[in-house]
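Ops channel
N.P.: pipeline sanity check, posting one input/output pair.
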């Protein structure tokens, strides 16, 4: 009986460890995804900023 309870405790601990590892990996993946999203957004904004320079001087799109 006691060995069965020990096996159940080990299973519960393993499940908690797996949940902890999966949540940590999801959190790390989310941070990496946010970092890539922010860097791509920053580069696209920089590209748009460079792209808008000729439009302000009256040459280019709508000028």
């Amino acid at each position: 009986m006691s060995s069965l309870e020990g096996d159940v405790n080990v299973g519960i601990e393993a499940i908690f460890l797996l949940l902890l590892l999966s949540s940590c990996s999801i959190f790390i993946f989310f941070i990496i995804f946010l970092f890539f999203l922010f860097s791509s957004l920053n580069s696209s904004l920089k590209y748009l900023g460079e792209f808008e320079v000729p439009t302000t001087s009256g040459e280019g799109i709508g000028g």
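N.P.: looks fine end to end. The chain has one domain: 2-56.
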